[in-house]
Write a structure and sequence with these properties.
Length: 208
């Protein structure tokens, strides 16, 4: 029986558009210099806690891929097998993508933009709700990521705020009412160890 059912979730480091306060979504934006350092620091913290990995999962977007690669390089795990899938992409913000968040508030109003950003099932124009993101990220987790963890592979998932919130919703047994209030910091590893029945045995946040 595997002794260490390790699953670590890591939100990518600050992106260039995070820095500029823009809605990013599926736009393929690279890390900022601060984001590069966040990814490296995450790797150093994981190494200092004695963690190691057998496989990495990430999205098809460069900011998540670079975060994974930079963190693994700090752990001397360059060349680790990686699986990339669109299912782990950030939530698609549709017509909001590329817009400054303050400008969006001026155009549609503070209340409406807050609903688009923080509700569970309201879609922005042309985009996805968090519920939509859960609907694509969760099956991928159940079909690809969870089986790897349960067979004893030590797994690192480097992805995005909303695709990872979809996984946290299941792992932490959150509801559509409670998940909208959950924020995941950039570059901060969430360390889960699972029981054989896929429930959470322990959770640790490796904050700076």
């Amino acid at each position: 029986m595997p002794a260490d059912r390790l699953l670590v979730l890591l939100r990518h480091g600050q992106s260039e558009w995070n820095l500029k306060n823009l809605f990013t979504g599926w736009r393929d934006v690279d890390l900022s210099p601060a984001g590069i350092e966040e990814a490296k620091a995450a790797g150093r913290r994981m190494k200092a806690h004695g963690l190691t990995f057998d496989v990495g999962f990430t999205s098809v977007l460069i900011r998540a891929q670079r975060t994974l690669d930079l963190a693994l390089a700090e752990m001397s795990l360059t060349g680790l097998p990686e699986q990339r899938d669109q299912a782990l992409n950030e939530r698609d913000y549709g017509d909001l993508s590329g817009l400054n968040k303050d400008d969006a508030r001026k155009k549609w109003g503070e209340k409406q933009v807050h609903i688009w950003r923080r509700s569970y099932d309201v879609q922005p124009p042309g985009g996805e709700s968090l519920k939509d993101t859960v609907a694509r990220a969760l099956p991928y987790y159940c079909q690809r990521i969870l089986p790897a963890v349960l067979r004893g592979d030590r797994v690192l998932v480097a992805a995005h705020g909303n695709s990872l919130r979809a996984l946290v919703m299941v792992l932490d047994r959150l509801t559509p009412e409670t998940i909208p209030t959950v924020e995941l910091a950039t570059g901060v590893p969430l360390v889960y160890r699972l029981n054989a029945d896929s429930t959470v045995a322990s959770k640790e946040i490796l904050a700076a």
